[in-house]
Amino acid sequence: MVSLPILCIKMDGSPKPSGLSTDFYNGWVGGNIATTQPIPGTWLTSQAAADQLCANYFGTGWQMAQFHHSSGGWAWYSYGNVRSDTRFWVRISDQPANCWNP
């Protein structure tokens, strides 16, 4: 059983930092990110369950981050300080590649 942190995001309308270049593939999501402690993938039974874990850790309005965010293609920027030495759980909406997909 694999356990990884969940990448969580709170879309709070944060303004894009001056000097940050964005394009179709690298967008600004207008929010803050954080990661949970490692969570077993078996706990992620649905998007709602994953969103609830983020809310339990960080509070109202936090949800599991999405790989293909509507404000960014292959990469997106936000405020936050996330470790770079580990992978983490994110969701994807256009492929059956989430922990909860059969």
Structural account:
The two termini are 16 Å apart. The chain is built from 1 helix and 6 strands. The protein has 102 residues and is of the alpha+beta class. The protein has a 4-stranded mixed sheet with strand order 5-2-3-6. Strands 1-4 form a two-stranded antiparallel ribbon. 12% of the residues lie in helices and 26% in strands. The longest helix has 12 residues, at 47-58. It has one helix spanning 47-58; strands spanning 3-4, 7-11, 26-35, 39-40, 62-64, 75-79.
Mean pLDDT: 90
Main sheet properties = 4 strands, mixed
Provide the low-confidence segments as ranges.
none
Ends apart, CA distance between termini? 16 Å
Helix tally? 1
Binned, the helix content reads 10-25%
Total strands: the figure is 6
- What is the string of SSEs from the N terminus onward? EEEEHEE
The Rg value, from CA coordinates, equals 13 Å
Q: Strand order across the biggest sheet?
A: 5-2-3-6
DSSP strand (E) fraction?
Answer: 25-35%
Structural class: alpha+beta
What characteristic shape results from the CA principal axes? globular
